[in-house]
């Protein structure tokens, strides 16, 4: 098996079979590429909660936050074309953001605001340093204010942006890393304004069609909805059940009322592998160039040193680039890998990583929403998955 030691790769296969056994995850799809070639592509377990339909390698998954890297590529394409600049203020493209306000105290009923000390830029949005409420300590009142404005209740990206213009920041732009989805949804609206196309159309015409990503989009055609894997969570009785979401009840239906740049896409392992391989190859795939090589290098570099005061990482051994984490120190991270490795994940247990040093791409897709209350749940798989991938390298 080119690129991997077969006997060692069998350890990954055995582990994923056990992880998708009767008392584990319903099913999974894994895909590994090296030097631009698919070297391992497997399906495990079942697609449905009844465990009657075996998972197939091209089944469709809700990739949620893996959408963020796609949105980032869309933004960077427009930057290359001169239609956007990362140091531009958001107000250049969207009304209502001319004078960002920061929550300085008070309550959700009577918030006390002050002007932001720094401009709210596209770069701050891309790097999650805009200062929006992100559930960090001290964000409680800001989160309550945002919930009352309810930007995610908007019918389209224009309405979302209008509501977000009334949401106060929890911190000055450029002063902290706070992972939030609103920033990437605002950038989706910026893509619409700068391109003159809907966000969904831009992605389809400029990214999905050129890369031949035939099963990726914000909804699944009716004829293909039988391929969407069931979305599970762990019940209080310790048994898997369908998640309490509209998408779990109606597989393939849009995940949001609008085309969310933060978490709205469905995709497959082979589709996302083509997208990730484009990044690994420096912005082009099969003769179709989406981004320049130096633009991709910038995406895959740590941008958090620009914070004031600067920080080296947002978690142990990891920095953040444009659209995903950047591994700085695998040993400190506690996981096999390489400096410069880049990737991200989605809320329903979907994961991808690209490694320029090893010319390696790895994807693991499941459909399980982990419990957030600390109750009994299935073990997270990403750490062990990547360890087993890397130990199989010759």
UniProtKB/TrEMBL annotation:
Gene3D superfamilies: DD-peptidase/beta-lactamase superfamily. Residues 15-380 form the Beta-lactamase-related domain. Pfam families: Beta-lactamase (PF00144). This is CubicO group peptidase (Beta-lactamase class C family).
